[in-house]
Amino acid sequence: MRDRLNPAIKLDGILATMYDPRTLHAREVVERLYEAFGDQVFDTIVHRTVKFPDATIAAVPITEFAPTSDAADYYRTVARELVSRGNAP
C-alpha cells in the first residue's frame, strides 16, 4: 500500500477484525498476526457480530447504532489504545 498509494503513510497498528473465536481459522490467523507483527498488532480484537452489517445498512457508525454493544466497545477500546500509543490525531 505504501509503495503504490501513499509513500508517506504511517502505520499505527494492525487491527484484527471479523474475528470468530469458534473457528480454528480465525484463531490461527490472529496467532500468525502476532507472530509476524508482534507489538504492531492491537491488543483489541474486533469480534464478528450482526451489529456491524446492521449499522452499515443504517448508514451510521456502530457507536451510534448500538452504543452499548460489545461491537461499539471494541472500537472505543481501539481508540484508547491509539491514545496510549501516542498515535491519536
UniProtKB/TrEMBL annotation:
InterPro entries: DNA_Partitioning_ATPase (IPR050678), P-loop_NTPase (IPR027417). This is Unannotated protein. It comes from freshwater metagenome.
